[in-house]
Amino acid sequence: MGGRRPRTGHDWKLLAESCTALLDRLPELVDAHMRQLADYSPVYARVLPYDLHWRESEEAIRIGIETMSAPRDSPRRDLECAEDAGRRRAQQGLPLELLVHAYRNAGYLVWDALLEGAAGQEPARLAVLMRSATMVWSAVDDQAEAASNAYRATEMELRRRTDEQLQALLDALLEGQQSPGLAARAAAGLDLPENGSYAVVVLRAERRDAHDGFHRPVQGTGFRFIWRMRTDRELGVVALGEGAGLDGLAGLLDARCAGPGGISPVVAGLAELGRARRLAELALRTCAPDATDVVRLDQRMPTALVVSQPELAERLVSGVFGALLELEPGDRAVLLETLDVWLTCEGSAGRAAGRLYCHRNTVFNRLRRLEQLTSRSLARPRDLIEMTLALDAYRLSGVGW
Fold first, then answer.
1. Residues 29 and 140 both lie in one domain
2. Exposed e or buried b per residue across 164-181, where buried means at least 16 C-beta atoms within 10 angstroms of its C-beta
3. Which of 172, 151, 180 is nearest to 237 (CA)?
4. 42 lies in the same domain as 137
């Protein structure tokens, strides 16, 4: 408590005598300080062991009293002590408001004790104390500010370290690590159930919305998102609340994210996030280079089978579209686009013609030519499957029509 004494001579001598006398009452002051803090809030006792708190309070009050009468050019040991206390209290989890209150309370105790000691003595001693009031309370403010600043800096550093630790746990889960207790630690740190319904979302990085921080600002009723950045993509762990499913998740992401992206099937716990991440990445691979939608793997299974086997996909394209690929690029593009639109329209030539801005007979003619070039019939289920998968493989190759 207190601070550097700007006066010298007789004033300084009287103040120093008062402070020295007050040091003899230090245990009494600390006991009173501890009682008053306990009356003010039970949190002190819950957070700080009594003996340790008593010793630290005794040191702080003693240094404060000694600093009050120290020479003007003396080091500010009271501020160093306050900074140390601020760091400790942040690490211990004591609320900042209670830290500041403790300094104020100690200041009142010391000031009242100084006035009490001067009462009944020569008037000059009381006059010196009154002239020192501004200096004393300014020093108390300095100490509270030093402790608060150190507290906030430590709190920020602790939060940064905690975030890094949680990110490391989440990364380990997404990489599929199976260390004992890993899922339980992540559940406790992230405040998520260890066992529950989860999905993983993967977004291509160059198409994501701009944002900062560990938590991407995409939220929705029934969903909790935790996002992690990668060099070329962004991963989102999604906790699905009661009644929430992939339909709602896909709709939310389509409305909020530019895409392209992939959504994994639902998995039953944090320990399965590695598998979910691999499946979400596979779903993303089913998106064409110019795609803008976020797709579900469970709705892209045939295409996922194709992209998961690149060598077989290449053989499928050459085996089914061999003769077609020898056509002029413009001619080839017309036939492949017609097939794609016809499939999208569920085999309706009339609807396909509307989208292609041509007559339905033109659609039939192009499809017949396609059948001739591929030696396959769109009326035979097995041939239709081969042509559909070959079309997906060709489109995902990035060559374009």
1. yes
2. eebeebbebbbeeeeeee
3. 172
4. yes
Torsion angle of C-alpha atoms 296, 302, 304, 309, degrees rounded to 10 = 180
Q: Looking at the 3D structure of the chain, how many domains does it have?
A: 3
Expressed as residue numbers, the domain containing 372 is 309-396
Q: C-alpha dihedral over 184, 187, 188, 191, to 10 degrees?
A: -170
136/191 same-domain check: no
State whether 53 and 137 are in the same domain: yes
Q: What is the pLDDT of residues 149-184, one digit of tens each?
A: 999 999 999 888 888 888 899 999 999 988 889 999
Are residues 204 and 346 part of one domain?
Answer: no
Are residue 268 and residue 351 in the same domain, yes or no? no
pLDDT tens digits along 55-105: 999 999 999 988 877 777 778 899 999 999 999 999 999 999 999 999 999
Does one domain contain both 280 and 357? no
